[in-house]
Amino acid sequence: MKKYRTWSEVNLKTLSNNVKNLRAKLGSDVRIMVVVKADAYGHGAVPVAKTALESGASMLGVGDSSEAIELRQSGILEPILILGAVIEEEIGWMVSYNITPTIHSMDLLELFNEEARRQSKQFNIHLKIDTGMSRLGSTPKRALEIARKMASFPNIKLEGVCSHLSCSSNHNEKSFTEKQITAFRQTVAEMEKEMGSAIPLKHIANTGAILCNSDARFSMVRAGGIVYGMDPGNLREVSDLFNPILALKSQIAFLKIVPSGTPVGYGRTYTTKKRTKIATIPIGYNDGYPYHLGNKGYVLINGRKAPIIGSVTMDYIMADVTDLPDGKGQAGIPQVKVGDEVVLIGKSASAENRITIEELAMLADTSPYVIACGLGKRVKRMYIV
Fold first, then answer.
1. Owning domain of residue 74
2. Could you give phi then psi for residue 338, rounded to 5 degrees?
3. Which of 171, 196, 230 is a domain's end point?
4. What are phi and psi of 236, to 5 degrees?
5. How many CB atoms lie within 10 A of CB 134?
6. Is residue 341 part of a domain?
7. Which of 37, 50, 249, 277 is catalytic?
8. Cβ atoms 121, 156 nearer than 8 A
9. Weakest-pLDDT range from 64-68, 164-168, 243-247, 329-333
10. Is pLDDT at 326 greater than 60 in this prediction?
11. For residues 103 and 109, is the Cβ–Cβ distance under 8 A?
């Protein structure tokens, strides 16, 4: 038996190589922010953040202040930007920990300035412009007004301005992406003209734009899926240059042989058509394995494909191992055993067959990001350094 029921392997060497490859692709003039929100897309925020910074990233992006404080308390001192909204109650902690907010409206400016004054600090702020996402951010006109107002607060400095692309990974929406980039460029130019100085950090490019829109890189990019080796939308260059850092594995917990005509799992969604050997595997939707893969997903056991039969349940899946080769090239009841490794994402060390997270997401009709972010706390993270 393996040490853990179910575990993920996060290869920090590969992560480091991905960041370095991105550094080489961008050149020295463009900074890299590595996005580590949602526990680094399920990979583990602290080890991922430290590796990314050691490998060439200059800033980290998070979703909220709790994620930023976790990084600060782990000893990370480099710049951290909260990409999402902030609430008034977070302001004191953010100023104290030197956590940079992204401002989406005028409301919090005075509060940040007053708190920075109280703590005797010059506090950096980024301003977000909504160029077409319609989620967070101010309209271009309103953003100009906020930038003017910011100049009247002595303890606040406009370090950066940003926007968010909604369709950068979709080749069919290229014209809309270009429209967003143009609106961003024009608004930033107006800001800098009024201010009489350049804004140090300008960023709109996420993974899709980094690869598909070189004119979107500006002075910094926000690298999410690309550094994890995950492809958000059929971007061939991800698989060509950036390797996946995540593997998801479990083991066989129980084996049984049942006769033809035996129903399997909740709802009797599968019935055996012949004498069948079933492997029960201790991973389910509570662990982040997609529910919709019942009767259509598959796993790798000893490097060989085994189809999932029956529904994915909270704690278990079941796989048909009847037709796996027995190691001697013979068909029939395979000589699999309890404790054998089961690969759900990735590949076995001794075999070439691989299950990619993109393939899994396509089968489950979801995004690779959803699967990675959804890995549960029972999944033990193992780090390869």
1. 12-230
2. -60, 135
3. 230
4. -55, -30
5. 9
6. yes
7. 37
8. no
9. 329-333
10. no
11. yes
Asked if the model's pLDDT at residue 328 lies above 70, the reply is no
Q: Edge to edge, what strands does the sheet with 201-203 contain? A: 201-203, 156-162, 123-128, 100-103, 80-82, 59-62, 31-35, 220-223
For the chain, the distance separating the N- and C-terminal CA atoms, rounded to the nearest angstrom, is 24
Residue type, 20: K
CB 283 within 8 A of CB 6: yes
DSSP string for 84-118: S---GGGHHHHHHTTPEEEE-SSTTHHHHHHHHHH
Q: How many domains, in total, are found in the chain?
A: 2
Beta bridge partners of 299: 306
Residue spans of alpha helices (H) in 220-327? 225-228, 236-241
- Closest by CA to 354, choosing from 366, 363, 365, 345, is 345
Task: Determine the Cα–Cα distance for residues 193 and 186; give it in Å rounded to an integer.
Answer: 11
Total Cβ atoms within 10 A of residue 225: 25
Question: Per the domain annotation, does 303 fall within a domain?
Answer: yes
Total residues found in the chain within this entry: 385
Phi, psi of 256 (to 5 degrees): -150, 155
Domain termination site, one of 198, 230, 262: 230
Q: Answer yes or no: 37 catalytic.
A: yes
Predicted local distance difference test score (pLDDT) of residue 327: 52
DSSP letter assigned to residue 347: E
Active-site pick, 20, 174, 256, 266: 266
Residues forming a β-bridge with 320: 278
Bin 192: left if φ > 0, else alpha if -120 < ψ < 50, else beta. Answer: alpha
Cα separation of 246 and 373, whole Å? 12
Those residues with Cβ within 8 angstroms of residue 379's Cβ, 6 or more apart along the chain or in another chain: 6, 7, 8, 248, 283, 287, 288
